[in-house]
Amino acid sequence: MRIISAILMCMAGMQCLSQEAEVQETVTQAIEQVASVEDDREPEDDGQSQWLDRHLRQKLDLNGADPDMMGEMLALTALQVRHFEQYRRLRGPFIDLMELQAVPGWDAETIRRVLPYVKLAADQHILPVLKERLLKGEHMVMLRSGRQWADGHGLKDSVVPSLGYSGDPVKLMMRYNYRFRNLLQWGVTVEKDPGEVLFRSGRGGGFDYSSWHLSLRDLKFIRALVVGDYQVSLGQGLIRWQGMAFRKTSESMLVLRQGQALRPYNGTDENRFQRGVGLQLHRRSWEGLLFLSFDRMDANITGDSLSAAGRRVSSFQTSGYHRTLSELDDKDALLQRTVGGSLRFRGSGLRISVNGIGYGFSLPLQKAPDPHNLYAIAGRRWSNFSMDYGCTVRNVHFFGEAAVDQRGSKAFLNGLMASLHPSVDVSIVHRHIDPAYRALQANAFTEGSEPANERGIYAGITIRPVPSWRINGHIDLYRFPWITYRADRPSGGYSTMWHAVYKPHKKTEVSIRWQYESKEMNQQAFGANMYALTPGIRSGLRMQLSMHFGTDILLRARAEYSRHRLGLAREDGSLFLTDLLYKPMGKPFSVIARLAYFDTEGYGARIYAYENDVLFQHAVSTLFETGARCYVVFSRKIGRQWRVSCKYARTVFVENAGRTEFRMQGIWSFSDVRPAALVRRNASASVPPRGL
After folding, report:
1. pLDDT band at residue 1 under the 50/70/90 scheme
2. DSSP element (H, E) containing 554
3. CA-CA distance, 556 to 558, in Å (whole number)?
4. Beta bridge partners of residue 217, listed in sequence order
5. Cα dihedral angle (165, 168, 169, 174), rounded to 10 degrees?
6. What is the per-residue DSSP string for 36-60?
7. Which residues pair with 476 in a beta bridge?
8. How far lies 4's CA from each of 432, 571, 627, in Å?
9. The pLDDT of residue 56 is above 80
């Protein structure tokens, strides 16, 4: 009955539908997926949002762009990135943006997504000297503040320190950045979370979190140099991946980890970065990476507090919150020293790298002695080594990584992406990871949140039967050879997702997505302390219709149904929402609004919904129980330098107290030098002719 209601609701809302054009569906799904896997936690790395915003205003030179960076930020597939790289190398510089139509594998949808961010620059072969980088960049100052109120039981401004939060409920973030293209940047970010103390003497005073960096790129043989905070991403994520990464989404071809090996960090996630120095060198076909960091980590310390010999680290604390005395006790409790490097060879259609990373801890790691922690990292030192490869043969790209940890446990991940036909692409990923394999801050294409204790195979397909239709689908079969968090015996499962999009013209898009997952997990049986493995089934159906009205209005309606079943227990849920985006042409403001109604029978049937927010802010709502949620986001440009935005959101529950959220942000960007006008080159320039 709920499915029928969802279909009728979606049909009734056809005249008021659509999605904000700037938000890519692949990115929003990735953010929803991260929130669902990592305990409803929203990603706090806004590097991609900053990159997209910057290159909307200062477009990227198509002939000088790093293909890996474009692939990471614009969600291009590995085949599209490699074909772009090969085309530019064999044919020479692009002479017109429309020449992208000649790149194999680049369809109209891909070109439409890329065009707003790129240009053809007249000085594409001239690297600016250091003085130009220092004086001709853009300064940006950003201030963001927000607060949440709950009806009747919100955060208190002052509570007993040993029992509750010691600070006020306001969230505050300030950031300053200087950027010259992608060649030079530096910046400082400070943040305070709700409940944390600000500007108070004594323990926990001041801003709880601060970050800084200085980055220099493409200076002679230096590919990248970063001092301060940075992220490292190696191979396919089996030993280290701190940047943005996709797992299983409706885009079945986004299975390859790609992006910059070393990049500066100025996000607000307090864990997924390193503080030290990183250096990347290049010479012809060779690249080398070295990095060193000294990081203070939040950790739970056990043992005698008066005797250093008996103290142990029982767990890492990754929430980033320091509101109570116990959370303050864990703050910066562990010093982690990290050293690592990579050596890569780039040939024609071939890439191969050797990677290594080692850790030293000021206190030994020792988790609680229970079966789940049998293979946990222990001691004062840890290390991982790997070799990864990528090879393109005609329309097939092969990739993979083989890794080993300090104890000799192994992990393998191999895959391929193939274009079987101009309208058919397929992807296959196989992984075999030992139960005892462990790596810190690794993020590979696996079912689990970290690469460990897993064997599986994934197969995906993309079909474009006609220009107006696109169908994506995948199936993933996996097995856990050892016990997991919710399974006290070896277990397994499978998942599948199918997503069809119909776009008859630029102003209308209809999509339907169905997903199903069956994963074995514990269910109480034969008494209070006896459990049996039972398939836990999660399924969902989403239907969405988006429409443009003129050039100013975008409307969207969505109906979604979810079901969770474990044994005889079953929970159902539904969500209906309508979005409105009003952005009048030639006007300096925009308004985004949403009205949503949700009804679920429990947390198991929860539904995740990505939300529009102030610039550079990710937001995902976890909707369960019965209620309604609405929000309004207002943004305005003031002159050429100021951008102000604010968001007001309200959630009302039928049986529980509601909550209200408010967030406001101001951005000041300025530069002493106006960007040079785009110089269009004539096709008769001294460029080798090419047969298009």
Report:
1. very low
2. strand 553-566
3. 7
4. 224
5. -120
6. HHTTTPPP---HHHHHHHHHHHSPE
7. 458, 495
8. 41, 17, 20
9. no
Q: Which fold has domain 2-670?
A: Maltoporin; Chain A (2.40.170)
Tokens standing for 101? 């139509």
Q: What is the DSSP secondary structure assignment for residue 568, as one 8-state letter? A: T
Residue predicted with more confidence, 531 or 436? 436
Count of Cβ atoms closer than 10 Å to residue 684 Cβ? 7
Is the distance from CB of 244 to CB of 254 less than 8 angstroms? no
Which residue is listed with tokens 């008769």?
684
Say how far apart CA 166 and CA 319 lie, in whole Å: 17
Distance CA 351, CA 281 (A): 16
| Structure tokens belonging to residue 375 | 């293979």
47 neighbors 243 (Cβ within 8 angstroms): yes
Percentages helix, strand, coil for the chain (3-state, rounded to 5) are 15, 50, 40
Tokens of 349: 């259609």
Distance between CA atoms of 441 and 237, rounded to whole angstroms? 9
User: ∠453-458-462 over CA atoms, to 5°?
Assistant: 155
β-partners of residue 628 are: 597, 652
Work out the pLDDT band at 360, boundaries 50, 70, 90: very high
Indicate the pTM of the whole model: 0.85
Cβ-in-10-Å burial (0-12, 13-18, 19+) of 446 comes to buried
Q: How many CB atoms lie within 10 A of CB 94?
A: 22
pLDDT band at residue 662 under the 50/70/90 scheme? confident
Strand ranges, E, within 348-468: 350-365, 379-393, 396-405, 410-421, 424-433, 454-463
Considering only CA atoms, which of 232, 218, 226 is closest in space to residue 278? 226
Amino acid at 558: R
Enter the tokens of residue 628.
């309604």
Backbone angles phi, psi at 503, to 5 degrees: -130, 85
CA distance 508 to 16: 11
DSSP 288: E
- Cα–Cα distance, 163 to 420 (Å, whole number): 62
509 close to 503: Cβ distance less than 8 angstroms: yes
pLDDT in tens, 469-502: 999 999 999 999 999 888 888 999 999 999 999 9
Q: How far apart are CA 82 and CA 349, in angstroms?
A: 8
Sign of CA dihedral 655, 662, 208, 40: positive
- Which letter does DSSP use for residue 395 in this model? T
Segment (H or E) for 570: strand 569-582
Residue 600 forms beta bridges with which residues?
573
Exposed/middle/buried for residue 227 (C-beta within 10 Å: 0-12, 13-18, 19+): middle
Tell how strand 274-283 and strand 262-264 pair up. unpaired
- In 245-383, which ranges are continuous DSSP H helix? 325-330
Give the position of tokens 């320091």: 322
User: Which amino acid is located at 537 in the chain?
Assistant: I
Burial 195-222 (b: 16+ CB within 10 A, else e): bbbeeeeeebeebbbebbbbbbbbeeee
C-alpha to C-alpha distance for 194 and 187, rounded to whole angstroms: 24
DSSP 89: H
DSSP symbols for 154-177 = ---SS--TTTS-SS-SEEEEEEEE
